[in-house]
Design a protein that fits this description.
This protein has one domain: NADH Oxidase (3-Layer(aba) Sandwich). Helix content is about 40%, strand content about 15%. The protein contains eight helices and four strands, in the order H-H-H-E-H-H-E-H-E-H-E-H. It has a four-stranded antiparallel beta sheet, with helices on both faces. The two termini are about 35 Å apart.
């Protein structure tokens, strides 16, 4: 296959896709078409992985019991996190919507299999964390694929990962990378919600050091 040079129009659209990727917390409850979801999940098959280890393990959280356990996990962790702030920051934190778990029609828990034999350990001997980085790379492609279909993704990081692993009864060598809410966003924006509410500002430039 020869090198493929993409058009200016494609690059413009790709830039827009990245700008509108956004971490979504506010979802409509409309169902997601299975064919569309499957098409987006194919991004995992196309993702790079250290040593071609493909260490990602995806669990679709569907049952009422599993979703309730995940929600209670978030609520407990969120309460604990609030205790770490004070004053105006605590007040602002208490008003943030940090999870779409009660609305999102699709919920996924993505793990890394730290003990996978696939890839024969290539590239992971000195940096075993590369397997987890590989899973994050796959998630990023999945995220962009969802956005290209009009869907949104919310990455719920305020969780107890060990509790999540126990609740989902996964093997001991699996490590939680993220819990994800997927669905149709209530609205689109090219500005992060946390920036909109005054929690933090995105950097204007990328600091690069030369050594």
């Amino acid at each position: 296959m020869q090198d493929q040079a993409f058009s200016d129009d494609f690059r413009t659209q790709f830039d827009l896709l990245m700008r509108l990727r956004r971490d979504v917390r506010r979802f409509r409850t409309d169902a997601v078409d299975e064919a569309v979801l499957t098409r987006c999940l194919d991004a995992f098959r196309l993702a790079p992985s250290v040593g071609l280890s493909e260490p990602w393990r995806v669990i679709r959280v569907e049952s009422a019991a599993a979703r309730d356990a995940a929600l209670k996990n978030f609520q407990a962790a969120n309460t604990k996190a609030l205790d770490g702030y004070s004053g105006e920051k605590a007040q602002l934190y208490s008003q943030l919507k940090l999870s779409g778990m009660q609305e999102a029609p699709v919920q996924l828990a993505v793990f890394c299999d730290d003990a996978t034999h696939k890839g024969q350990g290539l590239g992971a001997g000195t940096m075993p964390e590369m397997r987890r980085y590989s899973v994050v790379s796959a998630i990023t492609l999945f995220w962009l694929a969802l956005r290209s279909e009009g869907l949104g993704l919310g990455w719920v990081s305020i969780l107890d990962p060990d509790r999540m692993a126990r609740d989902l009864k996964v093997p001991d060598n699996w490590r939680l990378i993220g819990y994800f809410c997927v669905g149709w966003p209530e609205a689109l924006s090219d500005t992060p919600e946390l920036e909109q509410v005054g929690w933090e500002n995105r950097a204007d430039t990328l600091p690069i050091e030369i050594r």
